[in-house]
Design brief:
Length: about 190
């Protein structure tokens, strides 16, 4: 994996995964328009900002520690002055962490791992997970896409919640186009 990342020039890294871009995300100001930011976390941040809520001081819980979503999501939330907790599939008492969170970003890759009863009333829930499960419909086995959050129950308590599919995925694509445009513009400066 690292050999592939290193083979891509950081200025052409539309995914925002190159070590130099990861480092820039960590140290750059939140107003740097030329950063190539990992697309899924950036899409999540855009959705949060579109809600019109003040993110400063909010308790944010990121469930998942991947280099693609979890870690860059933490960096973006810190830039917005959130108080950020990182959790994962092995976190002890995940329910308590969820109940304390104003914002829950679920990116752990386990179907319906986050129970609806764990969501704090009025919390914002962004479900990054996309999991295929088998269900029986009219006596036939069918596959269905579900997120990391138990949507039906969580929706009853959340201020806002993203669906799966159709929530974070389109934002990821939009942010990939954003990064492609920035990479092209940056290449024209040289």
């Amino acid at each position: 994996e690292q050999i592939v990342l290193d083979s891509i020039h950081p200025d052409k890294d539309a995914d925002g995964f190159h070590p130099l871009n990861v480092g820039k995300l960590s140290i750059a100001s939140k107003n740097d328009e030329n950063l190539l930011i990992p697309c899924t976390p950036y899409g999540c941040l855009i959705m949060l900002k579109e809600l019109g809520i003040n993110l400063s001081g909010k308790n944010a819980l990121v469930i998942g520690r991947s280099n693609i979503v979890g870690k860059p999501m933490v960096q973006l939330l810190l830039k917005e002055s959130c108080t950020v907790t990182i959790a994962h599939s092995k976190t002890k008492n995940l329910e308590r962490a969820c109940l304390n969170a104003d914002i829950v970003i679920a990116a752990v890759g386990r179907p319906k791992m986050v129970k609806g009863s764990w969501i704090k009333n009025g919390a914002v829930v962004i479900d990054v997970g996309i999991n295929r499960i088998e269900v029986i419909v009219d006596g036939e086995n069918k596959s269905k896409l579900v997120g990391d959050v138990e949507f039906v129950e969580a929706e009853k308590k959340a201020f806002a919640i993203t669906p799966v599919p159709g929530g974070v995925g389109p934002m990821t694509i939009a942010c990939l186009l954003r990064n492609t445009t920035i990479a092209f513009k940056n290449s024209q400066k040289n």
